[in-house]
Amino acid sequence: MTELHSYLITSLDFHTVQTKGLLKEEATIYSFSLVQHQSSEFKDRAGLFAEAHPALTQNSEEKETKLVLGYDAIGILAEALHKMWAAGQDLELNDVTCDDTTSLVAGQELLDAIKNSSYEKYTGQVEFDEDGMRTVESMDLWRLKTGRTELVAEWTPELGLNFTADPTDDDGVDDGDEGIEDSSLENRTVIVTTVTSPPFVILKDDGNTYEGNNRFEGFCVDLIKKLSEMMHFDYEIRLVDDGQFGTQTESGRWTGMIGEVVEGRADLAVAPLTMTSRRLSVVEFTVPFMKTGIGLMYNRQDETVVHTFFSPFTAAMWVYIVVSILVATALICLIGRMTPFHWEYVSDTRMDNDFTVGNTFWFLFSAMMFQRMTLTPRSVSTVVAFLTWWIFCIVIIVSYATVLGELIIRYKDRPTLDDVEDLLKQNQIKYGTLRSGSTQSFFEKSTFPLYMELWQGMQRHGDAAFVESYEKGIERVMNGDYAMFMESPVLKYVESRYCDVEHIGDIIGSSGYAIAAPKGATYLSDLSASIIKLKYDGTLQLLEQYWWETHNVANCPPDEHIYRPTPFTVRFGRLNLVFIFLLLGLIITMVITLVNFARKHTKKTLASGTSESPVTIWNTLLEQLRAALTCKSPTKEETEAPTAEDGTVQAPQQQPTSPA
Questions:
Q1: Distance between CA 156 and CA 140 in Å, rounded?
Q2: Per its UniProt entry, which superkingdom is the organism in (predicted)?
């Protein structure tokens, strides 16, 4: 607790609390007292009370308020009974218990008598209003700071608080003007040490060249900028040489940012720096600018069969495959109907073609599943189209089966983590923390059995349990063989940028990020006051919202979606050539079909020898397409003799007739 913290204790017995443990605390604690326990009148009455009731007071030097309130309650009850008897009221009493709702027969009369009575003893004048609520004449406000208790005000219903001492004075001594000049950062250049830790401090990497403080961006960079504007100081941001937050070595020397501040090479350490008792022994912290805890990050676990089925390809790949089937269906269906070799007589007056939209789609889908097909190509164009589709299917299916096999082999024996305790039930996944950070120190110093076992597991893994940076830890987690404990704000940021990781279990512990300054820094209180102001005006919340929820956030699919990619998922860029091959094959077959169709239509027009305008090729193409979509078969008048692809006339196939 720092000097900027103030607490109001609602208990009326705070004066009975032993304050020896609060001698070094700089926070200010206020409490109200109903009785003036320091007055000579109260002490005299308390002495008489102790003589009359030694069993109630022998174990306490101070008289608890509830004890004297109970005594005064009996006193006011006796006063009310005395008034009733003096007035000649017949007080009819009956037996009542605490186990039922039976009320006292003369209860209302007794209550009215209590409201009209008054009594003065240990807690002052005891009187009640019309609603039966006690009216309090006055209460004392006491202040406790650094083990020293002082009466600072008296409260009355009429005047409220009447201060008898300065409530903002720490020790009652006039401080004068000493230290005013040194207590401010105004017009000074402050050396700020930090480490790169997205999204708190990020080195800009957009291809441009930056110098000085412009090299950095992030939450902490914006925070120190806001503080400098409020307190009118300049600052210079420097990255700490060893890239560590700060831990104490066996020789007693501090590393990282804490070492920079302790040794005087930096005025402030601004980063996601956790407040710990060990660090507080060598530096001072402002009030926390963000709450934090410890969470477990692990590779995302997709346990459903549907997830596994769709994981070999990206969502874009699945879309391209579906579009390819639809486009191929339309083109091959049109090619089959434009080619004369696929027409057959179904009666003396009507011909039919197996290349309908439904049949063609089912044929292409069966080919992709390596199933038996009913359609048989009879022309060069359909043979080329079918061959192109088969090659496309072989490449797609082999790629899918290869990736699916990798997923099954890799994850079939992978343990499932639902909580932190599950780490202790397996030996395949290593786990650890950031080296020389507060998270490592938390597990190292913890006396809680679960955390002690986790620390012992980290020690068994040796150096493999710890990583030098969050980036290396994220990379190991995404490979699936490592789980990392990290502070909850960083974990939240990582989850919003990497779709392949997730948070396991609940948050452990509770602490806060704060700015560190050297011991005895007189400007610390001003910094804390400015941080508190930024909290209350919503600035810190807006900064957090921007850097966690808006800036470079990945578009991760929700957990309920049936598709989620894995590190093995095939993306379009790896198989784009096979889609290009399919498109070129279909274009070639379409060109062959159109050329032959145009030759055939021209010969028919020349052979007709009529002077009427011939039907255009486009009208015929549209008619064929319309017939394919509506499954309409042409009549004998609409048919024509099929021609081979070299232009010669062929006899159409005749359906065999049944013997008479």
A1: 9
A2: Eukaryota
